[in-house]
């Protein structure tokens, strides 16, 4: 039986380890939380620190080129970054390749700046090029589709240019400027797409008719984030399980790691490894923390500086033997089935020029191969113990990388609209001064609380939770600055028992005291999607177990967005309604309802699930599985991951597995799974700014249309409603929830 190799860390070292172990036939799981140094890199790869071994260097170059789009023969060349720094690199992305200073000698370059993009000054780049003997000039063009004309984020622009129409419009503007004086090449800031850089580059090729290149970037780095995304796309394509989760503790017996526990939203994963590769990085990735002394954060391993003088802070890390196994204070192997790779190891610092992505990949490759082969057998089994992982720095540890800006749906849309939105990073400082917080009432209400920023943050900031607490303070301390819906919501819930303040038609279906499963429909599903609610009841009733509908009231989930707790009366009423069904399982169609009920019901022996979990549990052995397959097999759909089902509860693959059971083919959007993007329905945004919510949903629907699928599915009633609102009448794409689709298929 093949070994199960668990890699902790999803940067260059971790992904190289996973790929190498997989190539040796191992089962591989990567546990990766947020982003690290790879995503913050310049986007270039250096082989600094890699041993002078031609065969080894050739192997790592082959591995890197197979995993991510990189160009170069392995020889060192120099490139300019948008800060004007000269960067030495052995491999670069295809959009940077034409910018080698060695190839620019004697040629003319037009440096094109983007109006409002503050991270680059085109005139400074021209001066740098002239210092290297290159004739250069400048031109400034507008960013298409953006009303905001100042302080644009490179990530917001790159996200926007993933839109083919906007990329083509920018390319046309650049081509007009380049044609005026017959420049040989064009230099651009590194913003030509975040996930669709190839398509944006093709648009530039078609419009310019001459060579062009993107400059490299210091953090925050779009090219670095492209590398990070490409690594993750590669490992997933090789059948490697990638968990977007943080390790909370490890189980140890003797000198062997026997269990790894990781939290993904509200879901805990208990993983049993045969071998472990520790690739958590140094300071940025959170693998090493510094307080009174430096410490490795997961296993409590000794951290040492390079050399014997006690200096070399940027090089410090875990000491290892030749087989990359970490050593204890006495020089003994600390864990026989653990290997360390990348910057969590002592030595090799990108900042000091003694390491980088190339060295990380070499170590990852070696560690992955050794782990797949089993290496040395684990030592004698001894007493068991549990090691708790150290908590991360949190909000006060913000390193200003702006990774959060790369995934914020509101920031991406608001810069197009000219709406002021502080963005995830700025949110952290709003609570420190009363006047700032008072003025932020409306901007803070624009957050969808999708938790994408929290998920990607390398230091573990929980920005969406900060937003909720700040909203609560605004309501309590500055009610005049609070949006009207915030002040009205508690009153509406008290008066009507639901978030809409209107009478919701009672669902038809079974109500019994001896049910196995109790269905809690919530507010949104029966109010906005009554037909889908009926289909869901039909489906659940057909699964072969006794079902009862719960006649409850609002779970209080909408109050979460204000940082408030639900009314006690509502909690008790729902508790009694569930108790009256006699059910052992409560299933909710709304992810927020599932979250609140799991927290509040407190009924012994009763488990709360989301509907998709219930379907995955009961559908395989149900009497209707054959009928569903006969009616749905071969259908082509794309699936939108609801934020509160994925990032909050860690449920990404469940819906895909259910669809596979009935023969439905899922065509993925570029942003899916843990990298999915919000549809604009969450956080109360729709009640405060319906137009902004709709525009965000339109961007998501456009992504779905490009897949060519016949249907857009999700498994959240709020997402269904918002995506339908964002779908244009000219777009031939049905929008449904998974449960509703299956229930509809059971009809006559």
Comma- or semicolon-separated keywords:
single chain, 748 residues, alpha/beta, FAD/NAD(P)-binding domain, Rossmann fold, Fumarate Reductase Iron-sulfur Protein, Chain B, domain 2, five-stranded parallel β-sheet, four-stranded parallel β-sheet, 29 helices, 37% helix
Could you characterize what this model shows?
Helix 1 runs parallel beside helix 9 and helix 5 (154-160) packs across helix 10. The protein folds into 5 domains: 4-44 and 229-388, FAD/NAD(P)-binding domain, CATH 3.50.50; 97-215, Rossmann fold (3-Layer(aba) Sandwich); 395-482, Alpha-helical ferredoxin (Fumarate Reductase Iron-sulfur Protein, Chain B, domain 2); 496-620, Rossmann fold (3-Layer(aba) Sandwich), CATH 3.40.50; 622-745, 3-Layer(aba) Sandwich (Rossmann fold), CATH 3.40.50. A 5-stranded parallel β-sheet has the order 9-2-1-13-18, covered by helices on one side. Strand 10 and strand 11 (256-264) form a beta hairpin. It is globular and about 80 Å long. Helix content is 37%, strand content 16%. The chain contains 29 helices and 27 strands. The longest helix has 17 residues, at 357-373. Residues 375-380 have low confidence and may be disordered. With 748 residues, it is an alpha/beta fold.
Summarize the structure.
The protein is of the alpha/beta class and 748 residues long.
Low-confidence stretches: 375-380
How much is the average pLDDT?
88
- Tell the overall outline: globular
What's the number of structural domains? Answer: 5
In the CATH scheme, the class of the largest domain would be Alpha Beta
CATH level-four homologous superfamily name of the largest domain? FAD/NAD(P)-binding domain
Total beta strand runs: 27
Number of contiguous helices: 29
């Amino acid at each position: 039986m093949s070994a199960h190799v668990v890699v902790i860390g999803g940067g260059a070292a971790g992904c190289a380890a996973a790929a190498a172990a997989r190539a040796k036939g191992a089962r591989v799981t990567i546990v990766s939380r947020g982003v690290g140094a790879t995503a913050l890199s310049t986007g270039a790869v250096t082989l600094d620190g890699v041993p002078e071994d031609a065969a080894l260097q050739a192997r790592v170059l082959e591995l890197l080129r197979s995993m991510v789009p990189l160009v170069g023969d392995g020889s060192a060349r120099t490139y300019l970054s948008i800060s004007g720094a000269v960067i030495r690199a052995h491999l670069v992305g295809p959009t940077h390749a034409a910018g080698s200073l060695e190839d620019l000698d004697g040629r003319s370059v037009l440096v094109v700046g983007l109006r409002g993009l503050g991270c680059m000054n085109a005139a400074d780049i021209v001066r740098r090029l002239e210092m290297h003997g290159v004739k250069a000039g400048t031109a400034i063009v507008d960013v298409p589709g953006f009303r905001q004309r100042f302080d644009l984020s490179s990530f917001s622009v790159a996200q926007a240019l993933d839109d083919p129409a906007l990329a083509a419009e920018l390319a046309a503007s650049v081509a007009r400027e380049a044609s005026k004086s017959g420049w040989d090449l064009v230099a651009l800031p590194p913003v030509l797409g975040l996930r669709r850089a190839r398509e944006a580059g093709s648009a530039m090729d078609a419009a310019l008719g001459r060579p062009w290149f993107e400059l490299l970037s210091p953090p925050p780095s779009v090219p670095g984030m492209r590398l990070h995304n490409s690594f993750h796309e590669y490992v997933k394509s090789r059948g490697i399980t990638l968990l977007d989760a943080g390790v909370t503790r490890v189980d140890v017996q003797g000198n062997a790691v026997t269990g790894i526990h990781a939290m993904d939203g509200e879901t805990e994963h208990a993983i049993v490894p045969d071998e472990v590769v520790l690739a958590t990085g140094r300071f940025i990735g959170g693998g090493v923390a510094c307080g009174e002394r430096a410490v490795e954060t997961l296993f409590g391993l000794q951290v040492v500086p390079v050399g014997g003088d006690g200096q070399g802070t940027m090089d410090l890390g875990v000491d290892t033997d030749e087989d990359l196994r970490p050593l204890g204070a006495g020089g003994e192997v600390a864990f026989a089935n653990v290997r360390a790779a990348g910057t969590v190891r002592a030595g090799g610092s990108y900042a000091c020029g003694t390491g980088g992505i190339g060295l990380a990949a070499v170590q990852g490759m070696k560690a992955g191969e050794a782990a797949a082969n089993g290496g040395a057998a684990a030592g004698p089994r001894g007493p068991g113990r549990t090691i708790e992982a150290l908590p991360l720095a949190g909000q006060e540890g913000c390193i200003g990388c702006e990774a959060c800006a790369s995934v914020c749906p509101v920031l991406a849309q608001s810069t197009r609209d000219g709406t002021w939105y502080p963005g995830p990073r700025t949110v952290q400082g709003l609570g420190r001064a009363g006047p700032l917080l008072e003025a932020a009432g409306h901007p803070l209400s624009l957050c969808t609380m999708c938790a994408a920023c929290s998920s990607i943050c390398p230091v573990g900031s929980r920005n969406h939770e900060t937003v909720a607490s700040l909203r609560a303070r605004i309501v309590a301390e500055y009610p005049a600055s609070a949006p009207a819906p915030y002040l009205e919501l508690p009153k509406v819930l008290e008066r009507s028992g639901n978030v809409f303040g209107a009478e919701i038609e009672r669902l038809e279906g079974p109500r019994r005291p001896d049910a196995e499963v109790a269905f809690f429909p919530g507010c949104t599903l029966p109010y906005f999607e009554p037909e889908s609610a009926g289909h869901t009841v039909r489906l659940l009733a057909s699964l072969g177990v006794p079902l009862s509908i719960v006649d409850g009231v609002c779970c209080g989930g909408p109050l979460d967005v204000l940082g408030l707790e639900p009314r006690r009366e509502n909690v008790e009423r729902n508790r009694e309604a569930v108790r009256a069904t006699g059910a052992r399982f409560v299933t909710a169609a709304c992810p927020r309802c599932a979250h609140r009920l799991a927290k509040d019901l407190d009924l012994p022996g009763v488990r709360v699930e989301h509907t998709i979990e219930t379907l995955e549990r009961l559908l395989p052995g149900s009497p209707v599985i054959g009928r569903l397959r006969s009616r749905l097999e071969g259908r082509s759909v794309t699936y939108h991951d609801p934020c509160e089902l994925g990032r909050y509860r860690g449920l990404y693959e469940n819906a895909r597995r259910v669809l596979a059971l009935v023969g439905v083919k899922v065509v993925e959007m570029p942003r899916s799974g843990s990298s999915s993007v919000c549809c604009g329905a969450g956080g109360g945004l729709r009640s405060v700014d319906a137009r902004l919510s709709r525009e965000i949903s339109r961007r998501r629907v456009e992504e779905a249309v490009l897949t060519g699928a016949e249907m857009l599915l999700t498994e959240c009633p709020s997402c269904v409603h918002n995506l339908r609102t964002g779908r244009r009448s000219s777009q031939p794409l049905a929008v449904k929830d998974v449960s509703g689709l299956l229930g509809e298929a059971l009809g006559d």
